[in-house]
């Protein structure tokens, strides 16, 4: 497990790159829309309906009110289609938006590997906590610890909202 980003990618202290991509909820979403209003927990995951990704999404779902209470919005990102995201969100009652990144442009922009470099089979699983000012406060990468992403992110959101 690593809390540092890969070489050449977005790191703690960086301004988070803006984006505009289709969501599972209502049209396109921009990171800039949250600036000055809410922190954002942006998490990249390999694929809808796989065991680890489902566990991660459901863990975010189960703690979603805690994130909201701490002043953060959760956004999941994978290369799956908007339709796949809608089905995944409906099937697991996910209250947060999922963003479709079909050509991995957002994944590349943030420097999230298309394949986990250690295991070489799955796209990377990386969570970013971005504060209200758009500054990255956490980069957490762990392909086989999907539920740990939630605990790490919530701790940072709570710490940054109290400062």
Automatic annotation (TrEMBL):
Q: Which SUPFAM superfamilies match?
A: Thioredoxin-like (SSF52833)
Give the annotated active site.
Answer: 53 (cysteine sulfenic acid (-soh) intermediate)
CDD domains xref list: PRX_BCP (cd03017)
Compartments in which it is found: Thylakoid
Which residues fall in a coiled-coil region? none
What is catalyzed by this enzyme? a hydroperoxide + [thioredoxin]-dithiol = an alcohol + [thioredoxin]-disulfide + H2O
Q: Read off the Gene3D superfamilies from this record.
A: Glutaredoxin
- What does this protein do, in the record's words? Thiol-specific peroxidase that catalyzes the reduction of hydrogen peroxide and organic hydroperoxides to water and alcohols, respectively. Plays a role in cell protection against oxidative stress by detoxifying peroxides and as sensor of hydrogen peroxide-mediated signaling events.
Task: Please state which protein family the record places this protein in.
Answer: Belongs to the peroxiredoxin family. BCP/PrxQ subfamily.
What this protein is called in its record is thioredoxin-dependent peroxiredoxin
């Amino acid at each position: 497990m690593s809390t540092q980003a890969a070489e050449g990618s977005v790191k703690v202290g960086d301004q988070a790159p803006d984006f505009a991509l289709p969501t599972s909820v209502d049209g396109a979403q921009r990171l800039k829309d949250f600036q000055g209003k809410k922190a954002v927990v942006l998490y990249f995951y390999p694929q809808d309906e796989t065991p680890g990704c489902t566990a991660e999404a459901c863990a975010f779902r189960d703690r979603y009110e805690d994130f909201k209470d701490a002043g953060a919005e959760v956004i999941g990102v994978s290369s799956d289609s908007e339709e796949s995201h809608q089905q995944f969100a409906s099937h697991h009652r996910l209250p947060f938006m999922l963003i479709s990144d079909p050509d991995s442009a957002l994944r590349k922009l943030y420097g999230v590997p298309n394949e986990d470099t250690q295991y070489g089979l799955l796209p990377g699983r990386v969570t970013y906590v971005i504060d209200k000012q758009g500054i990255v406060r956490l980069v957490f990468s762990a392909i086989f610890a999907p539920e740990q992403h939630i605990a790490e992110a919530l701790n940072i959101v709570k710490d940054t909202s109290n400062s």
